[in-house]
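Exercise 7.
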Amino acid sequence: MFGQILARSQELVALYGLNVVAAVLILLIGRWAAKIVRKLIENVMARTKVDTTLIAFVTSLAYVAMLAFVILAALGKLGIQTTSFIAVLGAAGLAVGLALQGSLSNFAAGVLMIVFKPFKVGDVVEAGGASGTVQKIEIFNTILKSPDNKIIIIPNSKVGGGNIVNFTAETTRLVDIQVAFNYRDEIEKIERLLRQIMEGDERILKTPAPAIDVVKFSETSVTIAVRAWVKTEDQAALTGHILRKIKELFDSKDLLPPLAAPPVLAAP
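Solution. The predicted structure, written as tokens, is:
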């Protein structure tokens, strides 16, 4: 009896032993090769200055895909039919994809934003129905901090599916203020006083030169636009400063009291 078992074992080892050894070698060598390929992908993406979040995700996804291929190859070497496994994986992938349509759209939008970089961390943006300073750009969400210190989490599909206004992408911004003056005031005198305000602030850039133009007439007033280019970081403070100076101009005795509404800041 023992001899029969031993003989049968020898037959099985002779029949399947080499396949088992080959399957183990496929697993070991395949895992080693997958690590090398993952490292190569990571190095290539790092040299092209791709975002670290996307690098981590892509390399992990590639590594898992290669391991799955290696495992299927090892099972096939053992004589196990892998067609059913592939069919099950495909069906499971389809079911998961249908269940996670929203998450997948957020993921796709996140990858596109990380690749094309319409904005970066630290930029002040308006996107997805909210505005604030960008804190994080994640695979599924973008996190903003509002001016009143609130954290806003926006799905990437909403960010990528609408208009994105980046207020700090450029180094300079235009201050555009429109002021309504009384018809009884002298245009040349008003322009001279407004130009003195422009020339008296060092934060206003000389090139392009500030501009003061008449832009509209109404029944009771004439509207003059004050336009000046400034550094982006100075735009908010300088706008308030110019409005204050214009209010002081209104209050001075150099001009008659305006009949129209007070200064109005044009839309940025």
